[in-house]
Amino acid sequence: MASYDITVNRKKYHVEAEPDVPLVWIIRDYIGLKGTKFGCGVAACGACTIHMNGNPVRSCQLRISTLPPNAQITTIEGIDEKGAHAVQRAWVELQVPQCGYCQSGQIMSAVALLAKIKKPTDKDIDTAMTGNLCRCGTYDRIRKAIHMAAENPDKK
Amino acid sequence: MIVYGRPFTWLQKIPTRNNPKNNIMSSNHVTLQGRRDFIKKSAVAAVGLVIGIDSSARAYNISNRLSNAGTFEISPFILIDAGNNITIVNPRNDMGQGTIHSVPAMIAEELEVTLDMVRIIQSDGKSKYGAQTSGGSSSIRNLWLPLRKVGAATKEMLIKTAAKRWNVSVADCYARDAKVFQRGSDVSFTYGELAEEASKLEVPAEPVLKKKTEFRIIGKDIKRKEIPARTNGKAVYGIDVDVPGMVYASILHAPMIYGKLVSIDDSAALQIPGVLQVMKCERKMIHRDVDSVAVIASNWWAADKGRKALKINWDTSGPEEKIDTDGYFRECYDAVSKEGVNHLEKGDFKRKFEAAQKKLDLTYETPFLSHAPIEPENTTAHVKEDGTVEIWAPIQGPGETLPDVANYLGIPAENIKIYPVLMGGSYGRKAYIDFVKEACFLSNKIKKPVKVIWTREDDITQGPYRTGMISHMQGFVEEGKVTGFHHHIVGESILRQVFKGLGENEPDPWMGEALEENSYQFNTQKISFSNIKTEIPIMWWRSVNASNLGWGQECFIDELAHLAGVDPLTLRLELFENQRFIKVLMTLAEKSGYYAKSPAGTGKGVAIFKAFGSIVGCCITVSRTNEGVKIDKVVSVIDCGMYVSPDTVKAQTEGNIVMGLSAAIKGGITIKKGVCGQSNFNNYQVLRMHEMPKVEVYIMENDEAPGGVGEPGLPPVAPALGNAIFAATGVRYRNLPIDLLKV
């Protein structure tokens, strides 16, 4: 067992865990933030997508011991205090989720995309979102919601 | 022919091994037992209203737990406290199909409350809520009248109470927004002020229901209240449940389906920090029991690591080694040339087919498929020393699970508390509760709360699967008209394999009736069935057999149209007498621009299928590219009669388009010597964003009885694609999946 200090959603946590525990389980079961989901364990579905220093990463592939020093981790719970990020508002407006299980990962990928490209094309959306599976089949609404969020960004 | 009741009502009652037929035949109406004598006397038609204070309706859900003090249960489904806080109990757990909104909406409509005013909680499997299985696209269909009556009866009791207090007639009162008003005055009582007294009244047996023109919720585009929680990480799914003191389990299932456990070497596993215990586990499938080994640990990662360190000897010498999808399909093709048993015969098909000049005799193949919900199977169970049990599970059928688990554990149902939690997808999988019983088994051994989480590999390699099938199709043309049609279904039957409910030489009634519903008019017609038995575990998968049979039926109609020299959509219009099918096709033709000339290198294909009481037509446009074929656009038209939530109807139909396309163009499940050839989303692919075509969904408006919505959109998708590829390229695909890059 080893000790780790990690920063999640701008808050510091002290965690005692084996070095090879993937971040998805650290976030869910050690820190208790359940919004990040387990789906495949092999970076093939995107349900566990979080941000590390602003970049979308699959937290099932990131071992706690390999986190870079001062890594800033952001989860679905941390993208907006009120859960009203432009992407979340568009998701609600277009009623995107069906079961909703993959949507934390979808939203994290979409937020990262819009941080890099203010007005993404359909092609940009394809590239950024193709690693996030939705078995319920909400892709069409996800695409529309990303365009909607791009048109109505947060006033900050 | 044996009649088992309507097709696809099976999910209402999962039959037991002992008596499959009786249970399949049992009614899926909501029937509730009254707890007080006068209620029994009140002769309520479909729903008994039970009055009193009850604490058992609490459930884990998006909503906070119910506080019980001073809450009056006007019916099992409606709880009102003195502060006018209103709770509606939803008896159909949500897997993404929207029942958490659309089912309570039916009560709210008649109760005259808005959805903003109520808290919605999930029923817990207790029999007072009646059947509680989400499945068979049946929730709205089966509850349309019963739950509206629940709302209307409660409203009438509240109005009667207010009228009495004001000493006026009930005609002088009306209800609106959780209050009863006296006409022509500002005087009102809240429901909370009336609830206690109202709860003592006799329940009206035939409350007056609102007319469609009076609806304020049903049929209206109202945003789902639970959606924000599904965008901010707050929605609680099965896998998110935490119980104090719980341990975690990862279970090694036999790599070869049904492999028998010979020996366990757990020495390496027990060395892994966090691993507490290794024990033999059991997987209770409906039709047989399977060996497995569980590793229990203080966290799930350690449990899974321990599981990977197990050294197990499996006995793989049994007949199961022959379980093989290729072998199964070989047997299916061998049966194609043989006569099946008839489900339906109109005219002498065989004689006319042999004599016909213009005819086709073709086979269409659909593979085995996995449900692969993104949330893997999981359950947390606590079997306590004192003989009580708590279970937190993402399941489609709490009402079926409760007695099933009680029987399994040998513990009375009244000592078992089930908290049905949101499902992160299901598509039929979480109506099958093998994973729930695993958690119960382990907790029963160690008497601690145990959380079982399957890996994706467990989910994909263990089944049960959508069955693979062959549609052997024969048809002929007489005097330029398609007049002869034979659908010879070849494959395994859920009724036979899982429920042992199909005799030798009996046609599968569910499959036969699924085809009969599709009421094309042929002079000479036959539906027959050849049962090819397999032990590859199968079960219902979104739209069940319709997902197989639609492929053969609708591609073959297309081929016959070309044989007769008629446009495929026009032929379908000629073959239907039922106006609902015709209207769907006409609307589809209009919305898709079907009859406009397609540019070179593009093509449109159509298909139509009725399943679960609804008709869906689908038109797909494809175009040739340098790398095969691309799907440009999918237009679907659904006639589901009256509906509750138009946005949910659209969302479900969109979802069915995506799942139908995955089934059409992505690989299926293959099994060799009992071992599944796929294991995770890298080799069991589903549709991804970059493959997503444009979609449009249109709903037919009419006053017909509600049909299903969760599944009917799927069956026409694959054949519409196959027909579109033929239109664009002249290449006819008869076996799924289609590799678009190789067309």
Main traits of this protein?
heterodimer; A: 156 residues; alpha+beta; five-stranded mixed sheet; 5 strands; 33% helix; B: 743 residues; seven-stranded mixed sheet; 27 strands; 24% strand
Question: Secondary-structure map with pairings?
Answer:
The complex is a heterodimer of chains A (156) and B (743).
Chain A: E1 2-8, E2 11-17, H1 23-31, E3 49-52, E4 55-58, E5 72-74, H2 86-93, H3 103-116, H4 122-129, H5 139-151
Parallel strand pairs in A: 1-5
Antiparallel strand pairs in A: 1-2, 3-4, 3-5
Helix pairs in contact in A: 2-5, 3-4
Chain B: H1 20-25, H2 37-41, E1 71-75, E2 78-81, E3 86-90, H3 99-111, E4 118-122, H4 139-166, E5 173-176, E6 179-182, E7 188-190, H5 191-198, E8 247-253, E9 260-265, H6 267-270, E10 275-284, E11 289-297, H7 300-308, E12 311-315, H8 325-336, E13 341-346, H9 349-355, E14 358-366, E15 378-383, E16 389-393, H10 398-409, E17 416-420, H11 434-446, E18 450-453, H12 456-462, E19 469-478, E20 481-491, H13 494-497, H14 509-516, E21 524-531, H15 546-564, H16 568-575, H17 579-592, E22 602-611, E23 614-625, E24 628-639, H18 646-665, E25 671-672, E26 675-676, E27 694-699, H19 717-729
Parallel strand pairs in B: 3-4, 8-18, 16-17, 20-21, 24-27
Antiparallel strand pairs in B: 1-2, 2-3, 5-6, 6-7, 8-11, 9-12, 10-11, 13-21, 14-19, 15-16, 15-18, 19-20, 22-23, 23-24, 25-26
